[in-house]
Description:
By secondary structure, the protein is an all-alpha fold. It has helices spanning about 1-5, 10-35, 45-55, 65-80. The chain has one domain.
Amino acid sequence: MGYILKMSYKSAFKLIRKAQEENAKDGLFELYCTLYPNMDRNNFFTFDEYLEKSRVASVDVDSRDRDTILKEIEETKKQFENEENVDIKPNI
């Protein structure tokens, strides 16, 4: 325990992140184990394949400021309001 208290913040955060990743991996393995009994030659996949499919794709975050985004929204709204034959109702 003393070793952890003497670590730098950067190293401690890396260690915590690694622990969280391993915890998530353990949870995914438990889910994989529930699927495994129902697998046969036609639908078998390894845990590594399951793990790769379960990874979340990175999300692009808009780094523009709030006013710029709101201005763009207003301009887009005006474009739709100015068009005469725009059907914005969902097709049900």
